[in-house]
Write a structure and sequence with these properties.
Layout (H helix, E strand, L loop, with lengths): L7 H4 L10 E3 L2 E4 L1 E7 L4 E5 L2 E5 L3 E3 L6 E13 L3 E2 L4 E7 L1 H5 L2 E3 L10 E2 L2 E14 L5 E7 L21
């Protein structure tokens, strides 16, 4: 059995509110629901269930014109759609190539394991003076790949069922 990339129309079946996505040949484009500025001087603690940064991340809201105005720095960005990775696949989330072409570089990211379900996040590192991006733009492309073999255990980690703030 070879690993294979899923068609975008098949990935779309595992995304809630799929009317808010854009289906591509090899995945789907997703919008965002939340943007958080990660403090450059932050101190991160990770030990078991203790996972925090001090000082806290700062939530950034779009302005009245619908744009996020994001100065150079590092941001945690939450997807606007709940994704449920099937037990036969692994999920990979990448920035749209437009972000790469203009110097908005995605930091390294983890794999979305088989069985993960939630509103995942991505880290963006903005290297230009400021990114002005509309809230209705598609920021990321999600793709699924078939597993070579069936997994023995589905994802049950710390981030299972993560949700946007207030839900």
């Amino acid at each position: 059995c070879k690993m294979a990339v899923w068609l975008g129309k098949e990935v779309a079946k595992f995304i809630e509110n799929s009317e808010n996505i854009k289906i591509n040949p090899n995945g789907v484009d997703l919008r965002v629901s939340e943007v958080w500025k990660i403090p450059e001087d932050g101190i991160v603690t990770i030990q078991g269930k203790d996972r925090r940064i001090e000082p806290d991340k700062l939530k950034i809201l779009p302005e009245e014109d619908g744009f996020y105005y994001l100065p150079k720095g590092t941001y945690e960005v939450r997807t606007a759609n709940k994704v449920s990775v099937p037990d036969t696949a692994v999920g990979l989330l990448f920035p749209r190539t437009t972000l790469n072409r203009f110097g908005v570089i995605k930091s390294e990211s983890g794999i979305w394991d088989s069985g993960y379900s939630g509103y995942g996040t991505q880290t963006l590192r903005i290297t230009v003076q400021e990114l002005r991006i509309h809230k209705d733009e598609y920021w990321f492309q999600l793709m699924f790949m078939d597993m070579k073999d069936k997994v023995d255990q589905l994802y049950e980690g710390h981030w299972q069922d993560e949700k946007p703030e207030g839900t």
